Amino acid sequence: MVVSTLSEEERVLSGVLRYVREAADADASLPGELKLSEWLDCTRLQVRVALGQLQREGIVKRRQGAPTTVDPIALKLSSRFEQRMEYGEILSRMGYTASLEILSTEIVDLPSDVEPLLSPLAQQKAIRIMLRWFADDRPAMVAEYILALPEGASLDPHQITPTDSVFVSAHKLWGEAVAWEVVTAGVSTLDQSWAELLDLPVNSASKTWEVVGVTLSGERVFHSYEHHHPNLVMYSFVRTIRAPWGGPLH
């Protein structure tokens, strides 16, 4: 198990975000600086700095002599669907302590349903990584990553580090950066194996993401399928309104 390492500043910010999330869920104001500093074992100045950052991002609203309140829309935008962040960073921004478990790493035949989605320059073998992210010791997301191997690449699964970002691993294998992800979001019911990994009842609903990573030259180098806990992290995205509803954009 790998626990995300945070600086002291990040630890305090993540802790404040935890109470921000709880206040938003309860439709309540945020506790005062003194109480937060006691709960987080830090100084009031550290809490004030964290709240100042969240105020600049629009997540909290502060007025002299009034309770600090949470803007629920701005809080939702802290985990935006169209902005790519590492999942551990998303969990930290929601106030969770993030940790990662690597379930398996192995060389496999390129699955027949995945092969058409990946680069024609890939071998018929791939590196398969199964991993699970935790939020405060609760399973939050389970993913299967299929990393395509370019022609001539070694069939050694140890040529990558499983705890690395998939972008780092793909860059190591293909020699160029991943520039885009094609993401298809959906909902699925969990069979027994996925349900056990997410610690949910069989046939529970989960949010799913199917992702294909594309390099700068257009090679499609990895495929992932992710099951997300339905309640721990909520995602939002921003849509631009164009004519005829919103008028022309200048």
Automatic annotation (TrEMBL):
Keyword terms, alphabetized: DNA-binding
One BP term from GO: negative regulation of DNA-templated transcription
GO MF annotations, alphabetized: DNA binding
Coiled-coil region list: none
Protein name per Swiss-Prot or TrEMBL: DNA-binding GntR family transcriptional regulator
